[in-house]
Input
Amino acid sequence: MRNIPPITKNLLIINILVFLATQVLALRGVDLASLFGLHFFMASDFRIYQLVTYMFLHAGFMHLLFNMFALWMFGCVIESVWGPRRFLLYYMVCGVGAGIMQELAQLGSFYFMVSAQEPVVGVVELFHIGNMLSGQLNLWTTIGASGAVYAILLAFGMLFPNERMFIFPLPVPIKAKWLVMFYVFIELWSALGSRGDGVAHMAHLGGMLFGFMLIKYWRKHPYYVYGSDGGRGFFDSLKRNFDKHKPKSDTTMHAEEGGAKETDMEYNARKKAEQDEIDRILDKIRKSGYDSLTKEEKKKLFDSSNND
Output
């Protein structure tokens, strides 16, 4: 847990604690999903804050396990690239966006359901019928972090498109960009052809859609975020930081981490060795991908970014 970036770590902890609270309170007759899950906006129990709270609730252990595993697997990398603030912004925006898309999908389902009985239904009539059925519409409840997690998967595919990954049960690794496209196809196919399966496919697609738009916006405004070349701007900025802080030749004595004094020549030599090591790690990422790094190399990279 100590090596997990702060936002990813806290998201994991919050989701697990909320899941445990859900199980304990259920024994006392309190249904957190009914209170904080995302209801259809025409339902009587709908509250605007549910667009945020729904993504911290899960229907069961396996639902939680798959979402948290994906959050840990991809979130650690994306947060290390973007930093905690930008990662949290991305996660929350995409989670809320997924909820909005799910609301629109439910509105479409409600319209088709009503129009099957009343072929000519206007907007006013639709909302009037929704008001009359607001109690029954409370059954349309969405919970889970899947929308935000799918957005993180998309971010990984866009930042590291050629990163090779092993996905069970495939016997060979596939590139991240093809994995993302595969998931988009599966979710789109499921959303169109698998009604009533209890899975919020439009929320998954909605999270990815909002993530795509946010990343495209950031790429068009590189002064605002990580750079116009995607996540590798993080590594380039890291190199620029080392170049900017190259020690100038002087006769000053410098203190090492252990408190011992070192001469100007020793200080310059140490800083040059650190920079050469970071350059080597960055070149290794460009050639072989992030996963090719050893645990020690990842730690050096993340430690150097934290010193920026």
User: Anything to note?
Assistant: The first helix runs from residue 6 to 27. The chain has twelve helices and six strands.
